[in-house]
Amino acid sequence: QSRSSQPVTGLYRAYWSTGTRKLDFTFSVMGSDILVSTSKVSPVWIVLSSYVVPGQNWSFVTMNNRVIMTGDGLVNPIFQYNMANSSFSNLFTQSAGTDSITIRAKYLLQKSNYLLFINVVDITQGTTFYPSRVHFSLLNQPSSTTYNRFFDVRTNDGEELTGAGVNFDRVNLFKPSSGHELSFTILDLVTRGGDQVLAEVVNGFGLKAPRSLQSDGIYYIFGAQDGIRIWDGGRRSRLNVAEESRIISNDIKPLIDRLINAGTYERMSGKFYKKRNWVVFSYEDPDKFPKGRNNSVIVYDLRLGQWYPICGWLANTFETFDGQDDKGELLFGSS
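The structure corresponding to this sequence follows.
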């Protein structure tokens, strides 16, 4: 459904149920608007906000019946939508508490009912950027974090955190040339029983294209500096090191090299399409039109290990409908 001439920079599916009542929510960000729809056929969009800065890519998580969302431009508050009562508000509110802070984050991740804020700016007093920092919430309290609930990831490399995921019950944090693992049972201050351990598990490759990061539940698939890689997170049982990580884009190397040389590779967007066991990527081919936006789509079939182009899709972001009564559909928001 066409609603705006602006590109879709965020697309997310969420679910809520209680007793016999079930609702599906589709969120989208177009230009300066954040919208939601609960209609499955011919969706009716409700505007939640018309004041976000356009051009950001948005990250979403579901936690405690709330959808929490943030833009990677670090210029808008982190928002929350309560699916139980359809209310929309800022996640953080100014508090008189001496240790409370207000932050913005490029990326969000939920693990074991803790919310992680990745690559942040602290705007409590002034504006201070921490591109290698991860703040974390209190258990089951996503809007509660404090000035000392954080850890830094390799601050001496000149790189920023570019994304995160969960595989084999561990959190993986990515930079362009490294990967790190966070394991915990209790994520808290050490003085309050926190048992988190952070370790670097790979050095030499990492996540170069932030929106390409996907997982099929066993492997990560993402755009690294040297091509599209498949990686098991560094902890899966294997017979040889080649099974840990390998380049899967050798058959399309001329295309990857062209994107890297043109500077469009980092804007590649990906989605794991469970129904067909595909990973779908959209990108801007510098030799095609329209210029200045993603204008091409290619699919990697995980079963066959082969690449296939898809023609006619101008896709900026993807989402799959995999929950409740959905049928595994793949949707994309236009570029």
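Residues 253-262 form the longest helix (10 residues).
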